Amino acid sequence: MISVNPSSNWIESHPDVIENVPFADLRVGMRARLTRRVTRETIEHFAESTGDFNPAHLDEHYANSSRFGGVIAHGMWSGALLSAVLGTLLPGPGTIYLEQTLKYLKPVRPGDVLSAEVTVAAIDAERRRVELECQVRNQNGDAVVSGVATVLAPKDKITRPRPLLQVI
User: Where in the numbering of this chain does the MaoC-like domain appear (predicted)?
Assistant: First the structure.
């Protein structure tokens, strides 16, 4: 089950369950994080899923001669991690993603370990909207993406078993 660590405002989740924080329970300063490793395989799956076959992400020879000096992950790979935090942790299931702004600060490469973090920055009780600061950092602590997301937070409590899907 989800719990909030009172000393840090971190949302802590159970590995077998996805659960939300309903609008009435949200507080400014609440935070959640999801960490994933970027691999050539996950980049290829992202390309296949989205249809984005830009050679900067898939063609080693082309990418080596680019300004990045090698293959980089799609920018929205990081954006998708932020979406996962919003949809599964904070606010969690039932969240409607309304708007986002993202700044891409550094390239993400195969082998990087990304931590996507969101922090509740503002709450609009009249419209049930929540603004969250978003940041993705690599394994060195470097910010690679930063931005802001606005969501419509769920009114009711939702708890579901975490689906058992193939990990890629």
Answer: 31-133
